[in-house]
Specification:
The protein has four helices and no strands. The chain is mainly α. It is flat, with a radius of gyration of 14 Å.
Length: 80
């Protein structure tokens, strides 16, 4: 996982517009496995992430603000 994160950071440092969606998806899957999440829990997290991302786009903020999926995942896991 650390290698994938480092790769994302390197890509973004070289080109802030770099598409890192594939690496981010791979990290998502590793985190889901790490916490042994069910398909239902994964669906909840992914829907919540899409909702927040869409909301932030609608707010038309000038800065790109990324949703911390991993913080959301940990929060959900801790609550259970």
């Amino acid at each position: 996982m650390i290698e994938k994160i480092d790769e994302i950071l390197s890509s973004k440092a070289a080109n802030p517009e770099a598409d890192t969606k594939i690496l981010e998806s791979e990290i998502d899957q590793l985190v889901y496995q790490l916490y042994d999440l069910t398909e239902e829990e994964i669906k909840i997290i992914e829907e919540a992430t899409r909702y927040v991302t869409t909301w932030k786009r609608k707010m038309k903020k000038k800065q790109t603000v990324k949703v911390s999926k991993y913080r959301n995942i940990l929060y959900i896991c801790i609550k259970h």
